[in-house]
Amino acid sequence: MASISGSARRRARVRAAGYWTATAAVAAELAAGGVWDIARIPYVRDLMTHLGYPSYFLVLLGTWKVLGAIALLVPRRALVKEWAYAGAFYTYTGAVVSHLATGYAVGEVGVLAILTALTVLSWALRPPGRMPA
Q1: 92: Cα separation from own chain's centroid
Q2: Which residues, 6+ apart, have CB-to-CB distance to 44 below 8 Å?
Q3: pLDDT tens digit string along 39-78?
Q4: What is the DSSP string of 12-81?
């Protein structure tokens, strides 16, 4: 019986480590990307223009990204976290589609695909206290 308990504890630790690693990566990208969007740094502004989006969209998108990063990291507020996960998923998958639709090569969306996968992983591994009732 002790080995089952030890094994269960080990799985719980691995699950928690996976959750926090994925969540930290997604929250960091959302926060940094959001600040870059709000500041309209030239690289991001030029990219958005190439994708066909107006520059004012950066401030809106950036604000939601920063709020999403905060929502993923603060305790409780499970329903707000659900919205943050949905927003991150839509942001990353929308960026993949936007890049591919405007002529970027499939290889250029690798980071976006990884961020999409990390978002799904964070959502799937979240502890019960971070899930809606």
Answers
A1: 7
A2: 33, 36, 37, 58
A3: 999 999 999 999 999 999 999 999 999 999 999 999 889 9
A4: HHHHHHHHHHHHHHHHHHHHHHHHHHHHT-HHHHHHHHHHT--THHHHHHHHHHHHHHHHHHSSS-HHHH
How far, rounded to the nearest angstrom, does the alpha carbon of residue 132 sit from its chain's CA centroid? 18
Residue 1 has pLDDT above 80, yes or no: no
Three-class DSSP category at 1: coil
Burial of 120 (C-beta count, 10 Å sphere; 0-12/13-18/19+): middle
pLDDT of 35: 98
pTM of the model: 0.89
